[in-house]
Write a structure and sequence with these properties.
This protein is of the alpha+beta class and 208 residues long. It is built from four helices and twelve strands. The N and C termini lie far apart (79 Å). Belongs to the germin family.
Length: 208
């Protein structure tokens, strides 16, 4: 009766010893759709699994008064292939994360300091919006447009986790107004006044 458990233990050890435990990204190699190729195991160190870049606040001296400090596979090679990454989000008073999507990841944000208004829009155009206080957590499903705004009277801090080592980001405002898509075309597809379009293009660096 003790023979079968013994065989099970041996088989587990055999297969686990041949499994690939991790794939630390080789940042000197090109990044493909599946991430970076694996660094040689003998070159992997504990430092590949450590990232200290989230200790310090990001620079919020910009148009949106927000800084996102990512710890994805590009900065944190140990998460390559693990389907997870994190980021630090600093927001000055009035800071905002403009409407955007994460095409490759679901996001979970936890408020560490301050008060945020956060929300997302479903594919049926239903809006889910909530004021978040310290300790609150909210999920933004993969691919859906979402935003955060610091509605408090102090600087806000949050941390996000993503279900991808390389979650990607797509900002709607920049996609429309930070390029050379002609104003007359934008007018036709958005119903916005051409003067307003030109103003937004000037604000975000677009032309046309």
């Amino acid at each position: 009766m003790m023979f079968l458990p013994f065989l099970f233990t041996l088989s587990f050890l055999f297969f686990s010893s041949n499994a690939l435990d991790f794939c630390v990204g080789d940042l000197n190699a090109p990044q493909g759709p599946a991430g970076y190729s694996c660094k040689k195991t003998e070159e992997v160190t504990v430092n590949d699994f450590i990232f200290s870049g989230l200790r310090a606040a990001g620079n919020t001296s910009n148009l949106v008064k927000l800084a996102v400090t990512p710890a994805s596979s590009t900065q944190f090679p140990g998460v390559n292939g693990l389907g997870i990454s994190v980021a630090r989000i600093d927001l000055d008073v009035g800071g905002r994360g403009l409407m955007h999507t994460r095409p490759d990841a679901t996001e979970v944000v936890v408020v560490i300091q301050g008060t945020l208004c956060a929300g997302f829009i479903s594919s049926t155009n239903k809006v889910y919006i909530k004021t978040l206080e310290e300790g609150d957590v909210m999920a933004f499903p993969q691919g859906l447009m979402h935003f955060v705004i610091n509605v408090g009277e102090t600087q806000a801090l949050a941390f996000s986790s993503y279900s991808s080592a390389s979650p990607g980001v797509y900002f709607m405002d920049y996609a429309w107004f930070a390029n050379d898509l002609p104003t007359n075309i934008l007018h036709e597809i958005t119903f916005l006044d051409p003067d307003q379009i030109k103003k937004l293009k000037a604000l975000l660096g677009g032309t046309g």
